[in-house]
Amino acid sequence: DVKVTQSSRYLVKRTGEKVFLECVQDMDHENMFWYRQDPGLGLRLIYFSYDVKMKEKGDIPEGYSVSREKKERFSLILESASTNQTSMYLCASILSAGGKGYTFGSGTRLTVV
Amino acid sequence: QKEVEQNSGPLSVPEGAIASLNCTYSDRGSQSFFWYRQYSGKSPELIMSIYSNGDKEDGRFTAQLNKASQYVSLLIRDSQPSDSATYLCAVNMYKGNKLVFGAGTILRVKS
């Protein structure tokens, strides 16, 4: 089975800090995604990547950036964390071919205080 | 209009009953449809995928797709308390592999 690993399950950061959320997948998937999930708002796409060094903005990219230097790793960066970025962050990956569903990582619960 | 719509629920059913979860989508050209189950505090888990009109069965789960009506549903037979979760409908609406998710339906199965 595909494994998508997010480096932290829970994080607490201070307002203004630069925050890195790491995601690694082990099945050579081209496509990787970062979502945040908030009660009542569902899953919202922040950024995605179709290949190494490629990135595309999703629906809510403001306040975030991403890095994909290696195929297996997709990092989400909060440039200056704010309290409204407190959320569950979910990473997902998928092969390019076949229209299959995503495999999600276990999620990172980020609290910004 | 939201791209993928689900009734937020909660949908309450007694143990052993059939739970019926519904989803509508806006893009008539969509080709791939997925149901995810998400337990509280956990990440979504893929439980069903469907690509053509009709029914697809997997154990106690049946996915139904009607592209003409832009409607996809998930039936859970013999519902168990362990089925209590949020069920997310996801649609591949665009070229590439970006999924659009509904907000989810909360299902509660009462013993």
Which whole number gives the mean pLDDT of chain B? 93
The percent of residues in helical segments of chain B reads: under 10%
| Helix content, binned percent of chain A | under 10%
Radius of gyration of chain B: 13 Å
Describe it for me?
- With 113 residues, chain A is mainly β.
- Chain A has no helices and eleven strands.
- In chain A, strand 9 and strand 10 form a beta hairpin.
- Helices cover 0% and strands 55% of the residues of chain B.
- In chain B, the strands form two sheets. In chain B, strands 2, 4, 5, 9, 10 and 11 form a six-stranded mixed beta sheet that branches.
- Chain B is globular.
- The chains are: A mainly beta (113), B mainly beta (111).
- Chains A and B meet through strand 5 and strand 10 of A and strand 4, strand 5 and strand 9 of B.
Short key terms for the protein model shown above:
heterodimer, A: 113 residues, mainly beta, seven-stranded mixed beta sheet, 53% strand, globular, B: 111 residues, six-stranded mixed beta sheet
